[in-house]
Design brief:
Helix content: 55-70%
Order of helices and strands: HHHH
Number of strands: 0
Shape: globular
Structural class: mainly alpha
Number of helices: 4
Strand content: under 5%
Number of domains: 1
Length: 78
């Protein structure tokens, strides 16, 4: 019984995790844009901002210079 309770408590913390717990500024801004619909304009990195705009706002992945990130973006939009 204790093991079950411990496991429930351990996993319940993940359901209350928020974007505010992310240390990286750009990743936190992307999380906020994805979760609450806030602007991608707070993201400093050009490619990450373009990725955010493409995946949350429907703009093109073509503005992303980084090949891997552009490919990931195109795969997510399919």
């Amino acid at each position: 019984m204790r093991l079950l309770l411990a496991m429930l408590l351990m996993f319940s913390g993940y359901s209350f995790a928020s974007c505010g717990n992310i240390d990286d500024h750009d990743q936190r801004a992307y999380c906020n844009a994805r979760e609450s619909g806030s602007s991608c304009g707070n993201i400093d990195d050009h490619d990450q901002r373009a990725y955010c705009n493409a995946t949350t706002g429907g703009s093109s992945c073509g503005n992303i210079d980084n090949h891997d990130l552009r490919t990931r973006c195109e795969a997510m939009k399919r």
